[in-house]
Input
Amino acid sequence: MHMQFKARNSILFAVLIIALLLLLGFDFVTGSTYLSLRDLFLYIFNQSKIDSDLLVLIRDFRITRVLTAVLAGSALALAGLLMQTIFRNPLAGPYVLGVSSGAGFGVAIAVMGASAFGINAFGAGAGLPVLISAALGSAGIMLIIIIASLKMRDNVTVLILGMLMGAVVSALISVIEYTADSLSLKAYVIWGMGSLSALSFNNMLLLAAVLIPVIGLTFFISKSLNLFLLGEDYAKISGVKTKSLRLIVFVLTCLLAGAVTAFCGPLGFVGIAVPHVARWIFKTNNHFIIIPATIICGAVFMLIADILSIRLAASGILPLNAITAITGIPVIIYIIVKNQKSYF
Output
């Protein structure tokens, strides 16, 4: 039985990886300017045969956008999984609990503050300040939620508190927008629509430098997360330092959600929906399996959303957060309807 389960998981992972590779190629060739997979192979193996203008298009736009989709989808999905585990709440996620709103508040302050000094917050060399502001904003909201979860045992109450915090932050952002100048306001509104195309190649590398180590660290807490799912008291008896685990998850989630929100905008419902899709596919809550499954499913989900945002638009690109909401909300509705059969 164990061997059959292991073989089944291996097949599922192989199918997901193949789907990921196919979507990577399809997303690469999707855009207003025609590119083929041959151009990608030439870029990788023989750049001397590529025109200089085409080289810029491939590196600074297509490859940057595709890799950003993989990074953003993986990070948001993983952040959702961590929050669902630590709160033991199937509807927990960066967007619903206000963490993404907190990151947006940090970005709003960075953009308005930068514009006051004549600095383009989304320009060259400005990636790190925006990233730090977003991480601090998400950390503030997450800290409040963590403290509340320690005082309140009711997951629904914590969920409502997160939504209220998100609403308060959104109201504060509206006040900042009202006092902002037209240029910084326009920049923030465009950012708020969500996009994978706004990043420069260097900012994509900065995003990768933050996310890849954080994603890697989650594999080291898989056993502790499995024990935590069985109950906090059981985890303590088994030797898990639950307060330390909460703090680690707090930091990891803030970095994952904050970094993606800083550069790509608030992409809602990815963190809630994707972990449930991964659980449904693999029929398990084992974090040794579900963490890599969620990472791959998140990348696949975001690549599909990016392709749809381009293909469905008559001209230009549709707001990415609209696509993630349209595709993610049905999954959440299904979770609510089938709550009596919850994984938790």
Observations:
- The mean pLDDT is 85.
- Residues 78 and 262 are 17 Å apart (CA to CA).
